[in-house]
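Need Transcription antitermination regulator's 3D structure for a figure. Predict it.
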Amino acid sequence: MTASEFTDVPRFPAGYELAEVLTAAARQLHERVTPNGTLRTAVQLAVSLVPGAEQAGISVVERGSQRRTLAWTDETVRTAESRAGGREPHPLWDRLWTAPVARLEDSLAEAPGTALSDSGLRSVLSLRLRADRRSLTVLTTYARRPRVFDEDATRVGRLFTQHVSLALDTATEREQLTEAMRTRDLIGQATGILMERMEIDAAGAFESLVKASQRENVKLRDLARRIVDAHEAPGGRPAER
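Structure prediction for Transcription antitermination regulator:
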């Protein structure tokens, strides 16, 4: 995916109406059907929308030291954020536990010898997407020149992250609903197979499935998948009581 795919979102600030641009961006975010797709779209749109932004990444920060980069515009960002999540702390992310935004005017002067300065990422603007007691999701934009991100960039970034957060919530709920429907259908198939093989009613078949799940310490969904797969395989054997 490249920035050129977003033809209906003009690059800020040339001839823009911010509300229109954000509306177009929100539309593209909500068109993505999975959380991963939403995140990949968000980093590309951030480069188009936030004044001065050249690159962007999204990472999740766990309490303690665990960090994972979820989406990035290029390998420079992925490498820098992965290194910041591994051998050294990111100079801004820990601030976002208590503040919605943090800026670094010049990593070469303020954070020399870090992954950011070593990668040539001089200006940094980090924005909080999600936060709870255990983890925090961060959108960060970068530029190779120092002192790029001003108050206007911060304002646009904060407005944009609100749209990203809403779209991400929607995509997550959609994915969870889809998975729940798949699980329900799978358990229904397994129950039907047990009814036929064991000559019992639906309640008895489901109870048998639950007991087997508890006995084998296997999730109900995974056990149902095993039964369905065994039924569909040549020479599949009936499940034991």
